[in-house]
Structures are given as structure tokens and as C-alpha cells.
Amino acid sequence: MKTHATAISTAQTDAAQTLRTGTTQAAERRPGTLPLPARRTKAGVAWLVPTLYIVFLMLPIYWLVNMSFKTNTEIMSGVSLFPQTPTLRNYMVIFSDPSWYKGYINSIIYVVLNTIIAVSVALPAAYAFSRYRFLGDKHLFFWLLTNRMAPPAVFALPFFQLYSAFGLIDTHIAVALAHCLFNVPLAVWILEGFMSGVPKEIDETAYIDGYSFPRFFVKIYIPLIASGIGVAAFFCFMFSWVELLIARTLTTTDAKPIAAIMTRTVSASGMDWGVLAAAGVLTIIPGALVIYFVRNYIAKGFALGRV
Amino acid sequence: MQKTWNNKAWFMVLPVLVLVAFSAVIPLMTVVNYSVQDTFGNNEFFWAGTEWFTEVLESARFWDALQRNLFFSGVILAIEIPLGIFIALNMPKKGLGVPFCLVFMALPLLIPWNVVGTIWQLLSRADIGLVGYSLARLGIPFNYASDPLHAWITVVVMDVWHWTSLVVLLAYAGLVSIPDSYYQATKIDGASRWAVFRYIQLPKLKRVLLIAVLLRFMDSFMIYTEPFVVTGGGPGSATTFLSIDLVKIAVGQFDLGPAAAMSIIYFLIVLLLSWVFYTVMTSSDAAN
After folding, report:
1. I need a surface site. Which of A141, A144, A281, B266 has the fewest CB within 10 A?
2. Å from B143 to nearest chain A CA?
3. A273 pLDDT tier (thresholds 50, 70, 90)
4. Which residues from B are below 8 Å from A67, CB to CB?
5. Residues of chain B with pLDDT under 50
6. In terms of pTM, does the model score above 0.80?
7. What b/e sequence results for B64-100 when a residue is b if at least 16 CB atoms lie within 10 Å of its CB, and e otherwise?
8. Where are the domains of chain A?
9. CA distance B189 to chain A (A)
């Protein structure tokens, strides 16, 4: 009885779908195949959930953008959904003051450095883990992952002392190296997943063809796992870009990240809310650009190459 | 994949080993060093044994922070994991909607953590924030700076906003990897939507969900920046989680001994709980 009812409702939605989408879909579907269950749910309801969720996600960001175009007097005088007297003054403050916009450049320098270091040391290691068994390999892999579980708060003070001893405080390379703590294990993990998906016969064929290992690795292997490298780089970029506790501890002026400079808006003369909001908006843009470029790999990347 | 035994592979792992040793082992050794020593300044250190460990383990402050943090992680997992799966199940599988959803959903993940705090501060303040102001107009005096419950609501909603997308994207990646033939089979059997979820989708999601639970647990247990920006650990110590407390002791009071001992206990708790999660989730897999 129940099956019968489902069959009827399926037939009804099918008919409705054919009506809505026209004849192409009906022609494409071979007789005997059935539609996916995702199509069985009413189209309106299925769209509602992601839409509501995106609205929830965008609302705070909208508020930030809204504030960044307001003058401080307007911000303090009450709440309005749109800037009544739109101003670019907040952005001008940031772009005309080197101590502001240099924070941006600093952030980008150490994030890029960190991504390059993490991915390039992780590549051979991930290859070793995906292709060979060696003494202590499983323990080593697990130990690497435990570093991802280390609270940054634990490392803040020892990092400061370590990098002071090497005279690296307030340099970009210090932050880039420190972020390797959590990014290298992650990069190894992601790349290992992608590399395990490449059949071993490819390596063997290349050796028979007379490729040396380095040449094979660069010419054949790296292009094969290019999307994996992209995903690993995306994750390294992401975690280095958003981290602040360690970055702030290791820098004073010359390499201070933009996110740490933002706290300057708290001053004796009161909060400069407008500039704070504008700086916040500007820190979102690089992330948004990176997501846009890797959008087709995001889903695969989150599966870490091996679902 | 059949792997060959080759100890020369160690050379390929060596760069990673050196780098992680430099950025993890040396600092960790410093921490261990401090945790068993006492100092009265002048760079003179004395052996203190387990004194700091006993001090930390006997302080009510540590246990309170631990309790708060465990409760927080529990709430976060209880909200974000089911919500994330629910949203992923309702996401479009193909068409223009897919990149649109992915780009917008991934956006909160790439916002610097203190900016996330700032955004929620700007949103929840009663004088200038959309939510705080609206609630005040509705007759609910919302003040996260003085009411512990309001502070908690703000911090939890902020974390849900910030991190649910990670669960959504992981679950979505797991869902799109399920072959169509599985669904066709359930169709022939006349399986209900719930049965499809329970017997097809959930088992297939197990692996990504393990990653999601582990990542969400670890990160919520180590949370520092976002609540620090919004509430500063207050009101009182209502939202003082372990990391906030640790930074207060280490950098604020410069009590190196207790801070180091606490760091080690903290790290061990994270490791232990992650191991428990891992074992529980993979052993139930083996039992099936």
C-alpha cells in the first residue's frame, strides 16, 4: 500500500517535472531509469534550506559592509539598513596610511610564504607515505596529525622565545614557519589522499621509460595531482590567513598582520567604528577571491580526495 | 594499494620532519622545561618537580574552565553536525546553484578569526548592532557584556555561523560521491526518505563525518580569538575557555610554571578526547 502510494506520488512529481523542464529531460531519460530522490522532494522546499542558511550567513557580513560606508556620527545616531549619507572616508583612511595598508601586504607575504613552504615540503613526504612502507611510518603519520591538535595558545609563548633566540621576531618568515605547525600536517594529509588515488603503474611505467625520479616527479606526477596541490594550497592559505594569536605574538610592527592592526581603532577618543568595519570588509576580500577561483574544487577538496 | 618496503623513503619525509621538529618539538620541549622548574627572576631556574601540575589540577579555576569548554564543545557538536548534514542533504546536486552555494557557504571560513569576533560584536551591540538593536526594540534587553546567558548565546551563535559551513561542505563532498545506482536501488525497493538517509547516506558519510567531528571538536576546544574579541572571557569568567585562561596566565600574569603545566595537561586532554572520538567512531564501523 505504502509502496503504491510512493509510486503514485513519484509518477505525479515526474509528470510535473517534465511539464516544468520541457521535453528535453524526458527525452534524455532512458526508459526504466528512475529519477534521483533529490528530485522527489518538492523543488521549493529543497531550495528553501540552503537559501535561508545563506541569508543567515550573509546578514552579519551585510551589516559590516553597511557600516563601512557610514560616517561615525551616523553609526552612533541609530540603526539604519542603508547608509543615509554614503561615504568612502573609512576606506580612504586605510588606503592613505602606510601603517594600515602595510598590514595587508604583511599578511599576504607571510600567508603566501607559508603556503609555498608547506606544500613544497609536504609533496615528497606525502609521496613517501602513499607509496612506501618504512620503519615507523604509521607512528610518524599519526604524530604529524597530533600537531594539528595542538592548541595555538600552548605555543604562543614558546614560539616567541624560540624566534627571539634566532632573531626572527617581527619577520614574515617567522610567522610563515610558525604556521607550518598546523599547515604541514594538513598538507601531507590532503596530498596523501590525492596521491593514493593515482595508480602505481604510472610510476613504474615512467621508470621503465627511463625517467629519473626527480624528472618523473616534476614532469609527470605533479601535473597528475595538480588539483590536489590546489586544494592543499587552498587549505594552507585559509588556515594561515585566519590565524591571529600566533601571528600577533611573533610580530611587532614590520610584519604585523592587518587583522592585528585592526585593534588600533580602539583608542582613548573612542571607537572608530567606521574604519574598523572598513578594515574588516577588506580582510574578507582576499578569502572571497580565493574561494571564487577554487570553487569547482571545494567539494572535492573537503572530501580530502578519498571518500 | 600494495606498498613496497623501502626505508629510503625516510629521506623524502625528512624535510617535513625537520620543519615540524623545529616548529613543534623545540617549543614543546620549552614548555616541558618550564613545567618542572621554578624561577625567581635573573634567569635562574630551580627544579620544582610536579609542583605546578598539582597546583593546576587542584585549582578550581582550571576545572571551571575545562567544564565550560567541554560544555561549549558539546553544544557546538550537537548543533553543527546535525544542522550541517541537514543543509548538505538539501543542497542542489547539479546546476548553477552548486558553485553559488559553495562560494557563499565557504565565505565565513576564510574570514580572520578576530574579524569574525568584530562582526558579531558590531551585530549584537544594543546601540549600533542590527540584532541587538532589533531585540531591544522588541522589548528584550540583550546585553552580552553583562548577562552570562546572553554572552553564551552570542558565542554559540557566532560559532555556528562561523563553522557550520565546514560540516556542510564535508557532508556535501561525501554525498556527491555516492553513485546514482544506490539511489536507483532504493527506488526499486520503495525505500522511504528516512531509510535512504539511515541506510545509504549516513553509512557513506561516516568517513567525512569522522573528519568533521574531529575538526569541530578540536577547534571548538581550542577556541580563543572569537570569544576573546566579543566577550573577553566575561562577563566575570562566564566565557573564559581554556585557551583564554591559558593566555591570561602565560602572557598576562607571566606565571610560566603553571602556564606550562596547564599547557601540557590541555594538550593531553585534546589528544585523549580526539583519540576517544576516533576509536568510538571507527569501532562502531568495524562492528557493522
Report:
1. A141
2. 16
3. confident
4. 122, 128
5. none
6. yes
7. ebbebbbebbebbbebbbebbbebbbbbeeeeeebee
8. 1-39, 41-87, 97-302
9. 8
